[in-house]
Every structure is written in C-alpha cells, then in structure tokens.
Amino acid sequence: MHPEDKTGIVGWGAYVPRYRLKAEEIVRIWGFEKTVPKGLFIIEKAVGGSDEDAVTIGWEAARNALMRAEIDPKEIGAVFFGTESKPYAVKPSATIIAEALGITPVTMASDMEFACRAGSEGLRASIGLVASGMVKYAMTIGADTAQANPGDVLEFTASSGGAAFIVGPREEAAAYFEGSYTYVTDTPDFWRRAHSHYPLHGEGFTGEPAYFNHIINSVKGLFNKLKLTPDDFDYAVFHQPNGKYPLRVGKRLGFPKEKIMPGLVTPWIGNTYNGSALIGLAKVLDQAKPGQRILVAPFGSGAGSDAYSIVVTERVEEKQRLAPMVQEYIDDKVYIDYGLYAKYRGIIRRITG
Amino acid sequence: MVRLSISRHWREKGAYYRLEGIECLDCGKRSYPPAPVCPHCGSRNVRRVKLPRTGRLLSYTITYSIPEGFREYAPVMLGLIELDDGTRLVSQLTDTKPEELRENMRVEAVLRRVQVDGEYGLIHYALKFRPHRPGGRKE
C-alpha cells in the first residue's frame, strides 16, 4: 500500500487551440533543410490566437475537467497551475482561473515553476493533499504558449495547449494512482532568464543527460517501487519535446510503439511544454477501458521527471463523453501562415499606448 | 488608448468571468449585464444568476476601424447572442473570421484576453463567444 492509492483522477480535460502552423512553413521561412521536420517527427503545431495565453488555455482545460468531475467547484481545496508562459511575472495565474471557475475564495492556489514539469509537480502535490485528507479535491493544470527563438530548431515544436486533472478520493475516480516516483538533478539543458523572451538550450545536454537520464531513472524507480514491468502496462505516455524522443525512450525502457502511439500528440499539435505529457494522458483516458494500467512520465528541464502508475476504473466510460476529447480538438483545425502565427504569438513588436 | 477601469473590471468579474446576470423576482425575466434594476419591468427585486454558457448568434457586426489597444484583435466581430435560456447579450466573437459567421450558428462562451494595458499594466480577461467546437456535451 502506498499513500497514492487512496487517490485518483475524478475529472480530466484538455484544450488545444484551433490554429495550426505546418512545419514546412517554418522550413520555408527560415531556410531549413526539408528533412528536418521528419527527423523530429513533427508535422504541424497548434498556435494560440491573439487573445489566448496560458491562463485562457488553462481555464478551458480546467473547465473540461470540471465537466467530467461533476462536482461543485467550491469543493476544490487547491489549484496548482504549472506553466513557463506566465502572463504576469508577479500575480498568480492560478487565482484568475480559480475565480473564473467559481472555486475561490476558500482554496489554496499557486503557480508552479519547473520548466515543462511544473504541472506534474502540481499533480504530486495534489495527490499528497488528497491522500492526507487536507482537501477533498485538488486541481492541477499544465498549460503553455510555448516560446522558441524564431529560426531556432525549437520553433518547429513550441506550441500552445494544456490539460487539467482533478484529484479526489479513489472511490470516485475514473482512474486511481498506484504509486509515483520523482527523480531530479541540477542539469543545464534548457533555461530562460527573467527578462528574456525566448529560452536557450545547452545542445549537448538536452538528450542523454537531461531527457533520457531523468525519465529512465524515474520510470525504473517506479518499477522497482511497485514491482512492475513494461508488460504490466497497456499505455506509456512520456514528455514529448518532439515526436521522436518518446518513442526512443519507450523503446529503451521496453515499451513497444503500440503502447506509446495512443498518447503521442506532439507530431500533430507540437510540444505544449507543461501540457505535453498531460495532454497525452488525457488522450489515453479518453479511450481507456476499465482495468487498464497507464504509465505516465512527464519531464522538465533543469531537470526532473515524475513517473506515475495509474489504473483505470469502471467509472471511466461514463466520464469520457462529458467533455470534448483530445482527438476532437486535434482534428478541429485551421491552417495559418507564418505571418499570422507571428502576430498571434506576439513575435511582431509594436509601439502601443 | 482606451483603458479599462481596474476597479470596474474587478467589481464586475462575476459577469466578465462567469457570465453572471440577474433574474427579476417580479417579472421572471433574465438580463445581462447585471444591474440593480430589472431592465424589463423596473423592479429592484432581482437576484444574481449564472447564465448558460451556450446559445445562438442572432446577428453580428464587423468593426475594422478600432481604437489603439485592440489592433491585434482586428477585425473586431461583435455578436448579438441569445443564450439557451433566452437571455440576450452583446459580446465579442473570437476564433472565427467574418466569412465564417452565420445567423443562428451555435456559439459558446470562452475566457479570453479582452485588453492588455501596454507592457506593464493589467491584463483584462472576460468571456467572449466562439462558434461551438465539436465534441463533448452541451451544457
């Protein structure tokens, strides 16, 4: 028995903006070699509109999670918002979302920071609060309007989207947590300084020392803790900085491609940073059957990874149709060119006021 | 540049964030935005209610000449919307373009930025309406 298994996901939701930029458009604008998108396994990415930011994206994902949870928002005792696209440097985004959803005023609320893993840290904190009995329900949201230096290879994938989960008592859950495991170190793979618009990445560090080392260690730690192997899982969802890395890390851990593809979203919507693995988990829950077991392993630069083992309950099917599914958001799209993308994402600087 | 009042936006966040309107306890009609007096019968016997988030677009107009501060949202599309309970309101439309707009199309409320006060000021959020996206149940 682990403390986690008193808790589960009572509601989940995702949101992906409507606009898409094809990878070939970035090739055209910045003069990349045409095979670069294929090498990254990226076809197109989601782009938030002019009036969208991490707060509005997080709000819609959280609203969808509430629709599935079918609870009074006032019963939520904690709201965690993980993002690296905070609209304010100082002023919490979590309170805006909590207010707009009718959760305030009697709740904890805070913004988390750990690159792409902040929303997952919120998930671990939510599990702890619910398992201890301090709150009945806790919400964690991971959402970003991901930044990338124009012309950097990161621009192929940096995209907009988010996911939200409401953690509550296991007996109400569509899926319960069997256990979790976290592995963090100080690693200089990716960072953004306080007044910089775009992140930088330490080329030699992004792959092996950061992404692969941390995910492999968190997942193996979880396997040892729960005495499980890849054969015990029906799905495996990893952080998705591109389409290629999750397939490669899955293979090294012993997962066949068939268990990874159902939760793989980056080739079609890009890397939504804090939304990345969590949208993948939402997509798996959209289609999962009772009794199935899911591995999810988010990753954040700097660096760290969490691994969770989640078992689906008989409640999942009644909740699946209560809110839009990830695949429906992926399929509902409008293509834009680089000019509109630059305007929508604030890459064009104007004098105003 | 037109600046939204910080205090007014804070006071009305129930209306801007959660689509709170009023219901008249005398004539029974609902209205938006909230006011101390029922616009239908003049009664002060009103209570706050949360209005439905979905409805249909009755009519619309498109504005190309707009004040500074809204240029990134241009053209600004304004819709006359009838919510599913019959309440009518005027709102900005989003995630669409003029040639996609149709009378009677289904619309739903979503939280969006309505104005950003330069580099250093507040970011104002409020509900706008967009064409209904597929999937999920209707509230």
Which helices and strands appear, and what pairs or packs with what?
The complex is a heterodimer of chains A (353) and B (139).
Chain A: E1 7-15, E2 19-22, H1 23-30, H2 36-40, E3 44-47, H3 54-69, E4 76-82, H4 93-100, E5 108-112, H5 118-132, E6 137-145, E7 160-169, E8 175-184, E9 190-191, E10 200-201, H6 203-226, E11 235-238, H7 244-253, H8 257-260, H9 266-269, H10 276-287, E12 293-297, E13 299-300, E14 304-312, H11 316-320, H12 326-331, E15 334-335, H13 338-344
Parallel strand pairs in A: 2-15, 4-5, 4-6, 11-12
Antiparallel strand pairs in A: 1-7, 1-8, 2-3, 6-7, 8-14, 9-10, 12-14, 13-14
Chain B: H1 6-11, H2 13-18, E1 20-24, E2 30-31, E3 46-50, E4 54-63, E5 76-83, E6 88-93, E7 106-116, E8 123-131
Antiparallel strand pairs in B: 1-2, 1-3, 4-5, 4-7, 5-6, 7-8
How would you portray this structure in words?
The complex is a heterodimer of chains A (353) and B (139). By secondary structure, chain A is of the alpha/beta class. In chain A, 35% of the residues lie in helices and 24% in strands. In chain A, the strands form three sheets. In chain A, strands 1, 4, 5, 6, 7, 8, 11, 12, 13 and 14 form a ten-stranded mixed beta sheet that branches. In chain A, a hairpin with an 8-residue loop joins strand 9 (190-191) and strand 10 (200-201). In chain A, helix 6 (203-226) packs across helix 7. The longest helix of chain A has 24 residues, at 203-226. Chain B is globular, with a radius of gyration of 16 Å. In chain B, the strands form two sheets. In chain B, strands 6-5-4-7-8 form a five-stranded antiparallel beta sheet. In chain B, strands 2-1-3 form a three-stranded antiparallel beta sheet. Chain B is 9% helix and 40% strand. Chain B has two helices and eight strands. The A-B interface holds A 18, 49-53, 55-56, 59-60, 64, 67, 87-88, 96, 99-102, 321-325, 328-329, 331-332, 343, 350, 352-353 and B 1, 13, 17-18, 50, 68-69, 71-73, 94-95, 110-114, 118, 123, 125, 128, 133-137, 139.
